[in-house]
Amino acid sequence: MKATTQRTLRRYHHYIGLFLAPAILLFSVSGAVQTFRLNEEKGWGGTPPDWMVWIAAFHKDQAPPREKPALAKAAVAKPVAEDHDHDAPLVAKAPVKRPSPVPLKIFVVLMALGLIASTLLGLTIALNNRATRRSSIILLATGTVLPLVLFWL
Predict the structure, then answer these.
(1) CA 141, CA 48: separation in Å to the nearest integer?
(2) Longest alpha-carbon distance in the chain
(3) What is the pLDDT of residues 95-147, one digit of tens each?
(4) SS (H, E, C) 91-152
(5) Which of 51-55, 80-84, 89-93, 95-99 is modeled with the greatest confidence?
(6) What single DSSP character describes residue 100?
(7) 100 exposed, middle or buried (CB, 10 Å; 0-12, 13-18, 19+)?
(8) What is the rounded CA–CA span in Å between residue 152 and residue 69?
């Protein structure tokens, strides 16, 4: 590959990386939080912090968190036996043995931490280059502000 082609590719990589860095950081953190369901009461062990609920809603729905209806909490799901013959006895099914999700969840969190570290290192490298610092700051600011503006539209 020619040197000019490599420089061009490096420049595009630089621009794209800086523009998407804020989103990469946000989605990495929110994905790690959701992996262990820390944004939910059952995962946190109580009411989770508001910031966890917000970033999870942004990640999943691209919208602010929805309020839980009061009736949904109080309602108890009743089993529906529409497909069963009412005279036939119900047979209990043996539980399906599934592998533990914990090893994969740990890998996902490690991947998120690696993505966060890699992104922060890339930002450090980009912002320490005096020749491209101004364009780097502009791209980083644009990549931060644009998603926030689109979120509130």
Answers:
(1) 30
(2) 81
(3) 777 788 888 889 999 999 999 999 999 999 999 989 999 999 999 999 999 99
(4) CCCCCCCCCCCHHHHHHHHHHHHHHHHHHHHHHHHHHCCCCCHHHHHHHHHHHHHHHHHHHH
(5) 51-55
(6) -
(7) exposed
(8) 23
Angle 24-150-113 from CA coordinates, rounded to 5°: 15
Q: Tell me the angle at which helices 102-127 and 3-35 cross, rounded to the nearest 10 degrees.
A: 140
DSSP code of 66?
P
Query: Which one-letter amino acid corresponds to residue 30?
Result: S
Q: What is the DSSP letter of 63?
A: S
Q: Are 70 and 41 in contact (CB under 8 A)?
A: no
Q: At CA 107, angle to CA 25 and CA 44, rounded to 5?
A: 70
Regarding pTM above 0.85, the answer is no
Tell me if 28 sits within 8 A of 146, measured CB to CB.
Answer: no
The one-letter amino acid at 93: K
144 is written with which tokens? 């931060």
